[in-house]
């Protein structure tokens, strides 16, 4: 019998067509919004956020990012977070009318749009959720799961290392030189910090700053 016909070429072509159409549609919508906002009295086109659910038009200025919904539970790689930041910056440039070959520095872009990197929003959401969990009663399922994780001595898997929430939390702490999260003792130390909200906010400022 002849080998089955592969549809990988058709899938790639369809994916490329959908991606191109989505990019053109978003660019066209951003340009129409830019023209409308610049013609309105006392309107600032940079005061518009990027959303994927259409709610950004309801109140005339901005809405919450749907793209970071439930971001406190994410364990993203650095490459994935960088991709989100790059996409976000591209949308901000389109909204304020900067297209190639025009250029604007990343810091100036965030300052002008009164925005911040999505990766920082995700990190803050992750640590805010972690703080809430640490303040739960000791018999809460989430707390018991964390204790069980750090009581286990074997966190090795076959293949490349997996990016889990404990791994991301430990990376955040290590990057900010605020200690580590690799043992049950580290978890208990962070629980003591989370119990005092002023100290926890100070820790979040150091990690997300």
**In DSSP terms, counting alpha (H) and pi (I) runs of 4 or more, how many helices?**
8
What average pLDDT do the residues reach?
Answer: 79
How is the biggest beta sheet arranged? none
Give helix and strand order, one letter per element, not per position.
HHHHHHHH
Q: What is the percent of helical residues?
A: 55-70%
Number of domains: 2
Distance between the termini: 63 Å
Kindly provide the radius of gyration, computed on alpha-carbon positions and rounded to a whole number of angstroms. 22 Å
Structural class comes to: mainly alpha
Tell me the strand percentage band: under 5%
Shape: elongated
What is the total tally of β strands?
Answer: 0
Low-confidence stretches: 52-64
């Amino acid at each position: 019998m002849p080998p089955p016909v592969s549809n990988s070429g058709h899938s790639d072509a369809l994916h490329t067509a959908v991606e191109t159409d989505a990019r053109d549609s978003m660019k066209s919508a951003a340009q129409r919004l830019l023209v409308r906002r610049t013609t309105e009295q006392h309107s600032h086109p940079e005061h518009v956020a990027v959303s994927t659910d259409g709610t950004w038009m309801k109140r005339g200025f901005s809405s919450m990012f749907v793209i970071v919904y439930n971001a406190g539970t994410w364990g993203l790689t650095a490459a994935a977070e960088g991709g989100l930041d790059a996409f976000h910056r591209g949308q901000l440039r389109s909204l304020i009318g900067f297209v190639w070959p025009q250029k604007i520095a990343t810091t100036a872009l965030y300052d002008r749009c009164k925005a911040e990197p999505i990766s920082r929003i995700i990190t803050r959401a992750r640590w805010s959720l972690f703080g809430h969990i640490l303040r739960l009663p000791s018999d809460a399922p989430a707390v018991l799961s964390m204790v069980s994780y750090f009581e286990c001595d074997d966190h090795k898997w076959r293949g490349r290392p997996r990016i889990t929430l404990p791994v991301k939390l430990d990376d955040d702490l290590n990057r900010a030189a605020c200690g580590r999260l690799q043992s049950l003792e580290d978890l208990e130390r962070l629980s003591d910090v989370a119990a005092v909200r002023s100290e926890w906010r100070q820790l979040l400022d150091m990690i997300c700053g």
